Structure formats: C-alpha cells, structure tokens
C-alpha cells in the first residue's frame, strides 16, 4: 500500500512535468489504455467536466493491475513489481495523451509537437531530433 501512495505522488509530479514538454511521444501502450478507459462526470453538475472514472479508470478497481493486463497481458496475481515505475508513468500520462489525440484529431501512435497556438500536431520525421 505504501508503494501505491508513493506511486500516486510520483504520478502527480510526472504529470505536472509533462505540461512543460514541447515534444511528446504517443506510444501504442497509450492508445491501448485509452481504448479501455472509462469516463465519468467529475465535480458539480454545473461546473464539473468529463474525466476518467476515478474508481476504475481502465475497467477494474485496481488501475495498476489493469495497466499490467492491458499493456503486458498479465492477469490475476501475475503482477510484476519490477514494472511498477513504468506503470506509474503510464498511469500519469493518459490526460496529456488524450489532449493530444483530441486536438490533433489523430488517435495514432507517433510524435507530436506543441504549436504556437498551443495545439499539438503530428511532427514530421525530419524535424524530430
């Protein structure tokens, strides 16, 4: 349990850092997680907004077990603690990835760049270093 609390703090710090990134890679794992995402309305009915279901963002009640199943094909007690850091990172990234796919109109893995208008668009392979 202590590891999950530490993971939640690491996830928040990671998500805050992502906002400053000019280039962002949308990986197949991100797309797979978003295909399994469950949404719900967050907040008050007049000021709230749609978001990932906080009790089961990827279908089950344990998001890290869901990530292990969706991304690595693991089920039940087959969870590998060695992958915890990667799963924490993946758990923190869907908000930015969802923003990228909604603004770019592309639900495809690839490299996206923040434009002057603040929107993220697919970058050409020649401009990615």
Report strand %: 15-25%
Oligomer: single chain
Rg on CA atoms, Å: 16 Å
The overall pLDDT, averaged over residues, is 76
**Which structural class do you get from the secondary structure elements?**
alpha+beta
- Poorly predicted ranges: 124-129
Distance between the termini: 40 Å
Question: Helix and strand string, N-terminal first?
Answer: HEHEEHHHEE
Give the fraction of residues assigned to helices: 40-55%
Shape: globular
Task: List the defining traits of the structure above.
129 residues, alpha+beta, three-stranded antiparallel beta sheet, two-stranded antiparallel sheet, 5 helices, 5 strands, 43% helix, disordered C terminus
Strand and helix map with partners:
Elements: H1 2-18, E1 23-26, H2 28-36, E2 39-42, E3 49-52, H3 63-72, H4 84-92, H5 94-104, E4 110-114, E5 120-122
Antiparallel strand pairs: 1-4, 2-3, 4-5
Helix pairs in contact: 1-4, 3-4
Explain what you see.
The chain is α+β, with helices and mostly antiparallel strands and 129 residues long. The protein has five helices and five strands; from the N terminus they run αβαββαααββ. It has helices at residues 2-18, 28-36, 63-72, 84-92, 94-104, and strands at residues 23-26, 39-42, 49-52, 110-114, 120-122. Helix 1 crosses helix 4. The model is unreliable at 124-129 (pLDDT under 50).
What does this entry show, briefly?
This protein is α+β, with helices and mostly antiparallel strands and 129 residues long.
